[in-house]
Amino acid sequence: MEFRVAEYADFQSVAQLHAESWQTAYKGIMRQSYLDETVLEDKQLIWQTRLLNPPFSQHVLVAEEDGKLLGFICLFGNHNVDYGTIIDNLHVTPEAQRRGIAKQLIIQAVKWAEKFYPDNGVFLEVLADNANAIKFYEALGGNRELKQRMESPCGKYLDEYLYTWKRPAELSEGCNVLA
Protein backbone atom coordinates (compact mmCIF):
# COMPACT_ATOMS: atom_id res chain seq x y z
CA MET A 1 0.00 0.00 0.00
CA GLU A 2 1.21 3.49 -0.83
CA PHE A 3 0.33 6.84 0.74
CA ARG A 4 0.83 10.06 -1.16
CA VAL A 5 -0.38 13.64 -1.32
CA ALA A 6 -3.45 13.94 -3.53
CA GLU A 7 -3.08 15.67 -6.89
CA TYR A 8 -5.59 17.38 -9.14
CA ALA A 9 -5.82 14.20 -11.26
CA ASP A 10 -7.29 12.45 -8.20
CA PHE A 11 -10.34 14.68 -7.87
CA GLN A 12 -12.73 12.35 -9.72
CA SER A 13 -11.84 9.18 -7.81
CA VAL A 14 -11.79 11.03 -4.47
CA ALA A 15 -15.19 12.59 -5.23
CA GLN A 16 -16.59 9.19 -6.24
CA LEU A 17 -15.44 7.56 -3.00
CA HIS A 18 -16.70 10.52 -0.95
CA ALA A 19 -20.14 10.31 -2.58
CA GLU A 20 -20.38 6.52 -2.25
CA SER A 21 -19.34 6.74 1.39
CA TRP A 22 -22.09 9.27 2.09
CA GLN A 23 -24.65 7.19 0.18
CA THR A 24 -23.88 4.26 2.47
CA ALA A 25 -23.28 5.95 5.82
CA TYR A 26 -26.08 8.51 5.58
CA LYS A 27 -28.85 6.34 4.13
CA GLY A 28 -31.89 7.04 6.28
CA ILE A 29 -30.16 10.08 7.81
CA MET A 30 -29.99 12.50 4.87
CA ARG A 31 -32.66 12.96 2.24
CA GLN A 32 -32.50 10.01 -0.15
CA SER A 33 -33.14 12.25 -3.16
CA TYR A 34 -29.95 14.19 -2.33
CA LEU A 35 -27.92 11.00 -1.91
CA ASP A 36 -29.29 9.54 -5.17
CA GLU A 37 -29.30 12.63 -7.38
CA THR A 38 -26.98 15.35 -6.12
CA VAL A 39 -24.23 14.10 -3.80
CA LEU A 40 -21.82 13.01 -6.55
CA GLU A 41 -22.07 16.33 -8.37
CA ASP A 42 -21.53 18.20 -5.08
CA LYS A 43 -18.46 16.13 -4.22
CA GLN A 44 -17.00 16.53 -7.73
CA LEU A 45 -17.24 20.30 -7.42
CA ILE A 46 -15.72 20.29 -3.93
CA TRP A 47 -12.77 18.07 -4.85
CA GLN A 48 -12.09 19.73 -8.17
CA THR A 49 -11.89 23.07 -6.35
CA ARG A 50 -9.86 21.76 -3.40
CA LEU A 51 -7.30 19.97 -5.53
CA LEU A 52 -6.99 22.59 -8.27
CA ASN A 53 -5.73 25.37 -6.03
CA PRO A 54 -5.30 24.03 -2.49
CA PRO A 55 -4.90 26.49 0.38
CA PHE A 56 -1.62 26.23 2.29
CA SER A 57 -3.48 24.88 5.33
CA GLN A 58 -5.02 21.94 3.43
CA HIS A 59 -3.46 18.47 3.42
CA VAL A 60 -5.05 15.59 1.48
CA LEU A 61 -3.55 12.11 1.44
CA VAL A 62 -4.67 9.10 -0.56
CA ALA A 63 -4.03 5.43 0.12
CA GLU A 64 -3.60 3.29 -2.98
CA GLU A 65 -2.85 -0.30 -3.82
CA ASP A 66 -1.91 -1.28 -7.35
CA GLY A 67 -3.06 2.16 -8.52
CA LYS A 68 -6.54 1.75 -7.00
CA LEU A 69 -7.81 4.29 -4.48
CA LEU A 70 -8.50 2.63 -1.10
CA GLY A 71 -9.14 5.75 0.95
CA PHE A 72 -8.32 9.38 1.62
CA ILE A 73 -8.09 11.92 4.42
CA CYS A 74 -8.34 15.71 4.30
CA LEU A 75 -7.13 18.07 7.04
CA PHE A 76 -7.19 21.85 7.38
CA GLY A 77 -4.50 23.07 9.75
CA ASN A 78 -5.36 25.55 12.48
CA HIS A 79 -8.95 25.65 11.23
CA ASN A 80 -10.48 26.69 14.56
CA VAL A 81 -8.98 28.91 17.24
CA ASP A 82 -10.36 26.70 20.04
CA TYR A 83 -9.95 23.21 18.59
CA GLY A 84 -7.11 23.47 16.04
CA THR A 85 -6.74 21.32 12.94
CA ILE A 86 -9.89 19.72 11.52
CA ILE A 87 -10.08 16.29 9.96
CA ASP A 88 -12.66 17.29 7.41
CA ASN A 89 -12.88 13.96 5.61
CA LEU A 90 -11.82 10.38 6.17
CA HIS A 91 -13.22 7.74 3.83
CA VAL A 92 -12.20 4.17 2.97
CA THR A 93 -13.70 1.95 0.28
CA PRO A 94 -16.00 -0.82 1.56
CA GLU A 95 -13.60 -3.50 0.21
CA ALA A 96 -10.68 -1.99 2.14
CA GLN A 97 -12.45 -1.43 5.45
CA ARG A 98 -11.33 -3.35 8.54
CA ARG A 99 -7.74 -3.46 7.21
CA GLY A 100 -6.48 -0.57 9.36
CA ILE A 101 -6.33 1.84 6.42
CA ALA A 102 -8.26 4.61 8.21
CA LYS A 103 -5.83 4.44 11.15
CA GLN A 104 -2.85 4.46 8.79
CA LEU A 105 -4.25 7.47 6.93
CA ILE A 106 -4.71 9.28 10.24
CA ILE A 107 -1.16 8.45 11.36
CA GLN A 108 0.30 9.68 8.05
CA ALA A 109 -1.80 12.87 8.02
CA VAL A 110 -1.10 13.65 11.65
CA LYS A 111 2.63 13.70 10.88
CA TRP A 112 1.89 16.77 8.76
CA ALA A 113 -0.17 18.34 11.56
CA GLU A 114 2.62 17.61 14.07
CA LYS A 115 5.15 19.30 11.80
CA PHE A 116 3.17 22.47 11.08
CA TYR A 117 0.72 22.73 13.99
CA PRO A 118 2.29 20.71 16.85
CA ASP A 119 0.72 22.69 19.69
CA ASN A 120 -2.77 22.85 18.20
CA GLY A 121 -5.46 20.32 18.87
CA VAL A 122 -7.15 18.11 16.32
CA PHE A 123 -10.90 17.79 15.93
CA LEU A 124 -13.62 16.46 13.69
CA GLU A 125 -17.37 16.58 13.41
CA VAL A 126 -19.46 13.45 13.13
CA LEU A 127 -23.20 13.07 12.67
CA ALA A 128 -24.89 11.90 15.85
CA ASP A 129 -26.62 9.10 13.93
CA ASN A 130 -23.35 7.74 12.48
CA ALA A 131 -22.82 5.06 15.14
CA ASN A 132 -19.91 3.33 13.37
CA ALA A 133 -17.89 6.54 13.09
CA ILE A 134 -18.62 7.47 16.71
CA LYS A 135 -17.43 4.08 17.92
CA PHE A 136 -14.24 4.40 15.84
CA TYR A 137 -13.35 7.90 17.04
CA GLU A 138 -14.07 7.06 20.66
CA ALA A 139 -11.80 4.00 20.37
CA LEU A 140 -9.07 6.39 19.17
CA GLY A 141 -9.43 8.40 22.36
CA GLY A 142 -11.54 11.23 20.96
CA ASN A 143 -13.25 13.40 23.55
CA ARG A 144 -16.84 14.34 22.78
CA GLU A 145 -16.80 18.10 23.38
CA LEU A 146 -20.22 19.21 22.27
CA LYS A 147 -23.37 18.45 20.37
CA GLN A 148 -24.54 20.95 17.81
CA ARG A 149 -27.20 21.26 15.15
CA MET A 150 -26.12 21.83 11.57
CA GLU A 151 -27.80 22.22 8.22
CA SER A 152 -26.63 19.39 5.99
CA PRO A 153 -26.09 19.81 2.24
CA CYS A 154 -29.44 18.09 1.66
CA GLY A 155 -31.17 20.93 3.54
CA LYS A 156 -32.06 18.80 6.55
CA TYR A 157 -31.01 19.87 10.07
CA LEU A 158 -29.00 17.17 11.80
CA ASP A 159 -27.25 16.75 15.14
CA GLU A 160 -23.51 16.30 15.14
CA TYR A 161 -20.83 15.77 17.75
CA LEU A 162 -17.45 17.42 17.95
CA TYR A 163 -14.59 15.06 18.89
CA THR A 164 -11.25 16.49 19.97
CA TRP A 165 -7.67 15.52 20.77
CA LYS A 166 -5.43 18.01 22.61
CA ARG A 167 -2.45 17.50 20.26
CA PRO A 168 -1.81 15.66 16.99
CA ALA A 169 0.46 13.21 18.84
CA GLU A 170 -2.44 12.23 21.10
CA LEU A 171 -4.43 11.09 18.05
CA SER A 172 -1.43 9.14 16.69
CA GLU A 173 -1.08 7.41 20.05
CA GLY A 174 -4.77 6.45 19.92
CA CYS A 175 -4.23 4.86 16.51
CA ASN A 176 -1.24 2.91 17.75
CA VAL A 177 -3.09 1.69 20.87
CA LEU A 178 -6.00 0.50 18.73
CA ALA A 179 -3.68 -1.31 16.26
TrEMBL record:
Q: MF terms per GO, please? A: acyltransferase activity, transferring groups other than amino-acyl groups
Q: Where are the transmembrane segments?
A: none
Q: Decide whether keyword Transferase is in the record.
A: yes
Q: InterPro entries, alphabetically?
A: Acyl_CoA_acyltransferase (IPR016181), GNAT_dom (IPR000182), MshD_Acetyltransferase (IPR050276)
Keyword entries, A-Z: Transferase
- What's a Pfam family in this record? Acetyltransf_1
Key word DNA repair present: no
Task: Tell me the superkingdom of the source.
Answer: Bacteria
Domain (N-acetyltransferase): residue spans on this chain: 1-178
Q: Which SUPFAM superfamilies does this chain map to? A: Acyl-CoA N-acyltransferases (Nat)
This chain's protein is named Histone acetyltransferase HPA2 and related acetyltransferases
| Source organism | Vibrio maritimus
Ranked from the top, the taxonomy reads: Bacteria, Pseudomonadati, Pseudomonadota, Gammaproteobacteria, Vibrionales
